[in-house]
Amino acid sequence: MKKEETPEELQQQLAELLADCSKDPLAFVQLFFPWGTGDLADHTGPDTWQTDVLQALSQALKTGNWAPVRVAVASGHGIGKSALVAWLILWSIMTFEETKGVVTANTENQLKTKTWAELAKWRRRCLGGDLFRMTATALFSADPKFEKTWRIDMVPWSERNTEAFAGLHNEGKRVALFFDEASAIPDSVWEVAEGAMTDANTEILWCCFGNPTLSTGRFHACFGRFKHRWITRQIDSRTCRLTNKEQIRQWIDDYGEDSDFARVRIRGLFPLSGTNQFISQEAVERCRHFKAQGYEGQPRIMGIDVARFGEDQTVFALRQGRRLLPLIKMRGIDTTQTSARAAQVIRQWRPHAVFVDGVGIGGSVVDQLRQLGFDIIEINAGAASVEPHKYFNLRAEMWGRMRDALVGGMELPDDPELLGELASVEYGFSPAQQIRLEKKEMMKRRGLSSPDCGDALALTYARNIATFHENETSCYPEDVGML
Q: Taking the CB of residue 82, how many other CB atoms lie within 10 A of it?
């Protein structure tokens, strides 16, 4: 009879198996996840493109020199990129003692809700995953002796605070740096991260993934000027196992295979015209430090984007000139509650104009507020634009006006959700070459929430409102007794 192995012996076998995978991430992925069982019952292992990237990384690690190993993958949507990032994070920390690393992404929302959430899912599936503890911001050794020295931290990037990247040293061991949605991470962060590449006799990994949204910047340079330093792959969504082929076909029918929309979203190629991001991350970031002046004489404008139940939220945006007050956000309330809260805010803030998205359930809020005596302006975002030669519909036009204001400078509240949404919406062109924003359904398919905060602010640009301070006209009828 075979002797039953003790827990200590099993632990030793696990440690030896992990050590064997130290320079073979593909073997780690194949051995340490329960392929073909449970919620992976329909999956036999990594996709072909994932296998190729893992093999290329393994070959680079086995060369025997200490040169940093840099991997850059540009891809279309829905290919399983987040899963590969999670596998590499787990492999890097589990197969090399006292690994230190940092994970960042284009926005804090992406980092928390996509990158880190995907990592948590695969850690739960991973054999030996309980050897490492996971919090909202770190993955680290469960052994208290190593929790400070054997860890990978989740760090939102900041151009004003780059110490987390500059201080990533671990001489004689392993350093791992991961950029998710790397195209939108500013060059200044990339440049500081280079400082982690200098330790001697250290295994250094720098893995960057993302949609190729910008035809400039350091992510683009990985495939151009610095291509000789990087292992690069550009992945076409049509070749991947997990992608929705019918959705891809519709995109190609709508935009054309050679359009920038298809290049970025499907083919994993950089755009020819620059970017599919309607509002640049740089413009949004500058607004975080902008202080509005002279706004007191400008009209007060309120935008209401209405939701009812589910994952979307109702948002009130209160803007005066180039200054936006903190957004008012509500979830899980009906239209009567929304109308009551809106009436309260209107009476307190006394806006000169109130724009409400009247499509769907928003129409009920419009009716109720009008019954209370307020002069509400109902907006149909799908209606024709005032500039049909430029914009496909009113929603695109409102966002266009908002974008121009942001580029010129606007004081925004410190609201990561708003800041992330403003830079998350992509665009394409209609057959008549009008600017057309991507549909909310498309955003949700690529893992983003409906941009309710951005839509509420955009509603404040639905119409041009003249300066009202001379006659103090407002949305109130005279019998309300306000202004």
A: 21
